[in-house]
Amino acid sequence: MTTETREFQAEVKKLLDIVIHSLYTEKDIFLRELISNAADALEKFRHQQLLEDEVFDSQAALEINISVDDKEHTLTITDSGIGMTRDELEHNLGTIAHSGSKTFLTELSEGAKKDVSLIGQFGVGFYAAFMVAKSVRVLSRSYHPDSEGYEWASDGTGSYTLAPSSGLHRGTKIIIELKDDAHEYADDGAIKRIIKQYSNFVPFPIKVTGEEVNTVQAVWTRSKGDIKDEEYTEFYKFIANAFDEPMSHLHFSADAPLAIKALLFVPETNIETMGFGRMEPGVSLYCQKVLIEQHSKEILPEWLRFVKGVIDCEDLPLNISRQALQDSALVAKIKKIITTRFLKNLGDLAKNEPETYEKVWKEFGIFLKEGATSDFTHRDELSKLLRFESSASEPGQLISLADYIERMKEGQDEIYYINGPSREAIATGPYIETFKRRNLEVFYTMEPIDDFVLTHIGEFDGKKLVSADRADLKLPDLRDKEEKDSEDTKHLDKPVADSLTKWMKEVLGEKVKDVLISNRLEESPAIVVNPSGMFTSSMERVMRATSQDHMITGKNLEINTGHQLIMGLADMRLEDEDFAKNLAEQIFDNAMIQAGLMIEPRSMVERSYEIMKRALKK
Ligand code: ADP
Ligand code: MG
Questions:
Q1: For residue 480, what are the CA distances in angstroms to 2, 391, 474?
Q2: Chain-wide mean pLDDT for the chain?
Q3: Are 555 and 603 found together in one domain?
Q4: Measured from the CB, is residue 84 less than 6 Å from ligand 1?
Q5: Which residues bind ATP (predicted)?
Q6: pLDDT computed for residue 561 by the predictor
Q7: Are residues 174 and 252 in the same domain?
Q8: For the whole model, what pTM was predicted?
Q9: Ligand 1 neighbourhood includes 33 CB (under 6 angstroms)
């Protein structure tokens, strides 16, 4: 018989090096990972059996057997699952395919604590065995009727061997020779304890020296009233490979139009923000407890990829192929039903437990915003779930569109919002002035995506959503008499003002579409507004950053003809036109900065030095 020796892929070597030398981590989890692989293999076999005419060892009971030898210090985990061919052994246990795992690797090698416990979430769980193993032997025989057995073996230090192995049953047997400091795992008591902790819900019997340890059924198939909160939490931890507590769960079942049972969880943390890259979907599709597709991409919209859980639908044909899943009208129907239910559930949460919803929003709101910009089907439900700060909220307090509408003034029929880098910057900026005076509430949107979301939604409850930096803003005239009077402060005469705007347009040239007299300014000399109404300044910033400049149209500069600086400019224009040009350019640049838009810094800095020099001369 021939034994071949193969090198591990470089990433695997690196990962193994960390796993073998990590002292601080919870070692117990290696067993959870191996059992979860065994359970996956059994699920896959159960599924495959329905598709094939003939399978190898068809009589073998679907179960996981674990035995220990405390003399030899070995631990053996056997499953009668799908097994692996020679090629599969080489590919699955010698390389890392999934890109998220590479991020995990970088995090691991940089992190001081070397927390290996997340290993299962990144698709490299098998290698956790090397935390406790001196050597690992994997004996496997695939379910194919004409398959042959192979043995994979390694001590984790750079290479592994592959050799044919005769007399194997279907499935996989993993024999671990325990390290000297891990002999405690050659003990049934310890093994049973770990199984109860991590692997209680595995839907196949796990037997330790013949005795079945896990006796709990699939939680989602039980009725709500019988399930304790702790059971939900435990189940969540199991299916999500997670250690946090879920923030909320939805357990629901329906008989019509489809027989569906679903148990969905919102986790506690958003790992995408922790630098792990894009999350994979976390909901698996079952038919009567038989796995159809793990972490299905089809069953929920992509923007719900943060949700973990199980969807079980009796009406799905068990032997549906991956391709058929994608094209299935039934799957599309399930997706719509579940998504609607899930969003409704979040709405109820917002009503009944506002503090919990706020936490969900802070952590996962970004996904709901992604949905609002990309998913027409659920746009209305999603818009009800949006939350922002506003001019009428306390700092940090979040307001819904419905809250806003309830407080709208008589005569107001639009919803206003403005983007800025912070609450402070918005509240003291020029855009808010006219709203303050009119006592109109304005949403403060502080994320770059927000304006895309609100533009995309367009309206809520029949009220248009309008960005406060639009040029054609038509505000309701809600001022009382006193305020109107105070407005009669001195302004430039109309002919002077008209001539000034014309001159400024000439000076600024292509940089602006037009220069106009503003009726929205109070404290600020000038403001930049968007005549197209298509993009807000915040959206423009994003488009520039992503090189979509061609989409951008020119802006209007509006000037406050009651402002000292503008009035002074009108005089200066006659006295020293060159210097007045400098001032006009500077006023425009300043307004651009307040709109959060880029300007050309070099000429601006030079110009501002010129202005300072002149100020010092006086
Ligand atoms: P993951 O389970 O997330 O895919 P692992 O590192 O745990 O990552 O396992 C890698 C792959 O090895 C699995 O996807 C599976 O194809 C294969 N594998 C591991 N254990 C078994 C087993 N007991 N039976 C069959 N295949 C297995
Ligand atoms: Mg695994």
A1: 95, 20, 17
A2: 90
A3: yes
A4: yes
A5: 33, 37, 79, 84, 92, 99-100, 121-126, 172, 322
A6: 96
A7: no
A8: 0.71
A9: yes
